[in-house]
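Re: [help] complex structure
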Amino acid sequence: MSKARSALGRTVAAHSVLGLYTLIALFPVFVVVINSFKSRKAIFGDPLAIPTPSTFDPVGYTTVLAQGDFFLYFQNSLVVTIASLFFVLLFGAMAAFALSEYRFRGNTLMGLYLAIGIMIPIRLGTVAILQMMVASGLVNTLTALILVYTAQGLPLAIFILSEFMRGISDDLKNAGRIDGLSEYKIFLTLVLPLVRPAMATVAVFSMIPIWNDLWFPLILAPSEATKTVTLGSQVFIGQFVTNWNAVLAALSLAILPVLVLYLVFSRQLIRGITAGAVK
Amino acid sequence: MGALSLSKITKSFGNVDVIKGVDLTVNDGEFCVFVGPSGCGKSTLLRIIAGLEDASSGSIRIDDADITNAPPSKREIAMVFQSYALYPHLTVKGNMALALKQAGASKGEIETAVERASSMLSLDKLLERRPAELSGGQRQRVAIGRAVVRTPKLFLFDEPLSNLDAALRVNTRIEIARLHRDLKATMIYVTHDQVEAMTLADRIVVLNAGRIEQVGAPMELYNDPDNVFVAGFIGSPQMNFLKGAQLGGRGETLGIRPEHLGISRSEGQIPGTISHVEHLGGETLVYVRNVEHGLVTVRLFGEHKFSVDETVFVTPEPSRCYHFDANGQRIR
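Output below.
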């Protein structure tokens, strides 16, 4: 009886803490979204008010959709994010497999070297990266961004995935070897499906900074044809006048695709976890 | 078809020598069991035979082919693992068919091979299930079935019963023995459990610290051990090792199995007090503590009444004593 009550109390406490955290985390997003539907005067008059018929004004969205090539910016962001994620997951998983599976000289050292990237921000190398991109003629291309983001995402991906891959039974891989599967087939058909939850985790962690990044698009690919959404939104922020309606509308729209991507991966993540729980 | 011969196999990991020169011949159709304490190198030796580890030196032959440098899939072997190692994404049928598919067998061949193996192990009703939907015993049967399908020259078993509960272990053991009779194939079986070794083997290889201590049929090892290690490892409960000199015997150590000791309340060679009694129904184990010899185990058949702290006398049967020298070697 007392046990049941304390369990209930604990559940309530845990949920209220989580609920509070959710409120805090979602509040800025909420403010951005409601204000994106208000007139400029209403935004400054009462920023926290919900749009009413008198203050409702979709001018931000019409401006965003009319001005500039926002669909292109979205497309650029999506291409860069998805391509980078693909390479991060592919190369990260391959490197992690090699590090966890094969005994070779310098294995530990190589693992450490690859993990150092987690601690050292890639932006420190911006000048060198820019020089390299100029030399190879990749400035103002999406390829430049994809390469940089792949490099940025790899250290964490390798670190997480190699830990997971060490946990996969050697017997399974050896059974594959005896049955005549090649190392690539063992990697693709036996190991990858088993680390799917870890892959989803890595994908979610790597995706957000890539989508939100302003630094590298501004430096490496600022041309009209290669602008990403975050860079495109900067058009509305001026030195003297800022078109808040348009900025807020652009930001609200920018949340959508990344939300969809997140839902895709988190579903994988949950599926992986429940598959393990049911056995 | 499938005689294995190992010559001068060694294996080192860095500075650690795990296998220190093993020469062994396993005859065609033989059931050979590698047994030894954990860390003795028996699993490593099996993995070297399978080609999952490279030997540091030495050579391996199956029949007349040198397979020392062949990849695992070209050695015509099949292996059953302790953790089953079934492919989680394939059905039972897919698991059993994969090796043949990789080798490029035709659909008809695969179908008949899977059918033969599944009827042999009564897996017919499970063919469409996935490994996650099977119990431990069923999984191990599928793993054995996967090996049978390939009709290999050599079956390798790496502690296949260790993950099963006691009742299933007995059943699966009988099944493996039956399989060996039916297939007449050469099998190599690694275990640390000497009961499995004694019941299954045609020949037992006792390994210790990377070396072969003795090779022989189960009863040969039991009745005629070469040294203290084999004498102590084979047989349960363990052989008693008494100080030979005090008993007027030859050599340093006198070995006597618990069932070859007599116990009496009135007279005998070694006095002692009972420190523990185990009643197992069919037999009674009496542990007697003696100042010089330590704890001596006496195995009596049937039920006997003894109580703790009683003073008793223990006497070895002279014809059943084994004598060992200071290095642990048998004096015959």
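The interface with chain B takes residues 169, 171-172, 174-181, 189-190, 193-194, 279 of chain A (CB under 8 Å).
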